[in-house]
Design brief:
Blueprint (H helix, E strand, L loop, with lengths): L1 H7 L3 H21 L3 H16 L3 H14 L4 H13 L3 H14 L4 H13 L3 H14 L4 H25 L3 H14 L4 H13 L3 H8 L2 H4 L4 H13 L3 H14 L4 H25 L3 H14 L4 H17 L3 H14 L4 H13 L3 H14 L3 H17 L4 H5 L7 H14 L8 H22 L1 H8 L40
GO molecular function: misfolded protein binding; protein-folding chaperone binding
Main location: endoplasmic reticulum
GO biological process, one term: response to unfolded protein
């Protein structure tokens, strides 16, 4: 090497530097490069693993083969095949393009790239690949068929856009069915069909079309935001929050996504908190929280309707009878097919002893939802209606169904004093007073006994002989007197419990 330097006339210093560079090249080749045997090993391992379906492992070997020899068009082509097998068509495209650059007459790669471009809806680029194949191999049947599909796709795309701009959304959807069949990886056709569904009011189908576009486009923040808004308008606030967060992952400074995120997060927190309060039976606090929900989102009907529904439910649980009927009626007007509202209003009518209306509401609720809870509620309301046509102990004492024991006893004492038979002179008046007095005492007995009151509230009269085993009660009167003892003159003695 030194002799070579002298022959070329290089000075000692330059010659030394030249020798150092040569030595470095040799060392780098040993570190970074790969022998042909190693490359062949990676290719063979990649082939075997690909055949066995172990795609990730196969891809690793093809990566090593490409790094070892970046001039071999086949290594790029084979790696592209693995990407395609993994469903990563976007990753396969650069490898196919590189294979074609290294070998322009590699028709298999052109066909494969053309097929991907066609499925992506890129008709012009796909046409160029298929046309190039046919110029080199005029009888290639696959290229001929795909070129025909490319022309068909172009015409359908133009037709779909024309119909959309004319407002013919249903017809546009029909055309786009075929478009998407040919080009399933084209985000634009799915986005257009989603817009048609939105304009037709079918938001769920719009969501189905938009969801895959988040993967078909890079950094598709617009799709994530639109998905979030659609879920939000449907009342799916947790899904809405998930999608808008995906948008912010792509760009935390995106103003539209951040603004929507704040709104969804605030409302979602309020809704979750309100439901937790209901589960904890803190109905007044839940009611207050739903009032706040309506202020946070007054413009989306789902949330205002939901708030009214849950306020109605809370008022029934709080036994605020008249207010419950008013709020439930308003909620029913907003959402006439909501079985839960009808169920809750029926319960409010029961509390107000309006059993016929309760039966009507339960029957209507059953038209929209046949769950067991509503069937049982209807049966109970019908029993209560039947009993009320005989004896309604709440009405006898003039108390509400939510009255406590002290209120019941107070009402009983007042009526017992009023209808005591000793207060009346004529026999007719005494007999009428006796009947009322017995009813008053029976009502007091049933409503102050927790077990009997529970039975009565469930639609069963515990003092009805038909409901008693053995044909009746041995002691029919709840107080210590027998109004039908022998003798014409008697005095009532009873205890005010």
């Amino acid at each position: 090497m030194m002799d070579s330097c002298r022959r070329t006339g290089l000075s000692g210093v330059l010659c030394s530097l030249s020798l150092l560079c040569v030595l470095l090249d040799i060392q780098l080749d040993g570190v970074l490069g790969a022998t042909q045997a190693e490359i062949e090993h990676h290719l063979e391992m990649g082939r075997k693993l690909l055949a066995a379906g172990q795609l990730a492992e196969a891809l690793s070997h093809y990566h090593s083969a490409v790094e070892g020899d970046s001039k071999n068009y086949l290594t790029f082509y084979k790696r592209a095949a693995v990407f395609l097998a993994m469903g990563k068509s976007k990753s396969a495209l650069p490898d196919l393009t590189r294979a074609i650059q290294l070998k322009p007459d590699f028709l298999a790669a052109r066909l494969q790239r053309g097929n991907i471009l066609l499925k992506q809806g890129n008709t012009q680029e796909a046409w160029e690949d298929f046309n190039e194949v046919l110029q080199r191999s005029a009888d290639n049947e696959e290229a001929q068929q795909q070129l025909m599909q490319t022309h068909e796709l172009e015409e359908l795309q133009e037709e779909a856009h024309a119909m959309y701009h004319q407002g013919e959304y249903s017809a546009t959807i029909n055309v786009l069915e075929r478009v998407i069949e040919i080009s399933p990886w084209d985000p634009e056709s799915r986005e257009l069909r989603a817009e048609c569904y939105i304009r037709m009011g079918d938001l769920q189908k719009a969501i189905q079309d938009l969801t895959p576009t988040t993967r078909l486009r890079n950094d598709n923040r617009a799709a994530f935001l639109k998905l979030s808004m659609l879920h939000y308008s449907l009342g799916e606030h947790h899904e809405s929050l998930n999608h808008v967060r995906e948008c912010l992952k792509l760009d935390q400074d995106d103003k539209e996504c951040f603004s929507h995120y704040k709104q969804v997060k605030k409302l979602s927190k309020q809704l979750d908190s309100a439901e937790e309060l209901i589960q904890a039976e803190s109905y007044q606090e839940a009611l207050d929280k739903y009032e706040v929900v309506m202020k946070t989102e007054p413009n989306v009907p789902y949330y205002t309707n939901l708030a009214k529904e849950r306020i109605c439910f809370s008022l029934v649980k709080m036994k605020s009878t008249h207010e419950a009927i008013d709020v439930c009626s308003e909620a029913h007007q907003r959402d006439p097919r909501n079985a839960n509202i009808l169920r809750d209003r029926a319960e409010a009518f029961i509390l107000n002893q309006e059993y016929e209306k309760a039966v009507e509401d339960y029957k209507e609720a059953l038209d929209f939802d046949d769950k067991q809870e509503i069937k049982e509620g209807l049966e109970r309301a019908q029993k209560l209606l039947k009993i009320s046509q005989k004896r309604d102990y709440y009405k006898i004492l003039g108390v509400s169904r939510s009255a406590n024991k002290q209120e019941i006893i107070k009402a009983y004492r007042k009526l017992a004093q009023q209808w005591h038979p000793d207060n009346f002179q004529s026999e007719a008046e005494k007999k009428e007073a006796e009947k009322k007095f017995i009813d008053i005492a029976s009502a007091k007995e049933v409503l102050t006994d927790p077990e009997m009151r529970q039975k009565f509230d469930a639609g069963e009269d515990p003092l009805d002989p038909e409901n008693q085993q053995g044909g009746g009660r041995d002691q029919p009167w709840p107080f210590h007197f027998d109004p039908f003892q022998s003798g014409g003159s008697f005095h009532f003695k009873f205890h005010y419990n």
